[in-house]
Write the structure tokens for this entry.
Amino acid sequence: MQAIKSRLASSRLIARLLATLLFGAFIFLGANGISDAAAIYVNPSATTALLPISAESAQARAVVLMVIHLAIALSGAAAIVGVWQRTRLLYGWLVVALMYAALGGYQIVSALIEFRRPELAVTGLAYALLAAAAWSFGRRFTRSAAGWG
């Protein structure tokens, strides 16, 4: 019986560590996105040289991207805290998944309609895959959280 309890505790620890690594990666990606968007906000000329967009539009777009990436980073941190404290903060994964889905949709629509460059829509598809990963892993961790007590 002791061996079973030990094995269960070990698997719970592995699940927590995996959740920490995954949502830590989402925090890193969110912080990186904030940094990139802030660089565009400060100096929009690089973006205006590559895309048919005005400097004001590039700055407005950068603000939208910063807000979305900030929500991703903060929600990822909340999910990690929720994993280790076994609280409802674990549901931060839901915000991470929804924000990545919104970011993917925004990038796809922006690439196809605003810039008329379908090759730029690939980044939106990458964000959609991140949304699917956050959704899948978050649901799995939430289901197993009931047994973490």
Notes: Residues 53 and 92 are 34 Å apart (CA to CA). The helical segments are 2-42, 45-50, 55-85, 92-114, 121-145. The chain has one domain: 2-145. The mean pLDDT is 89.
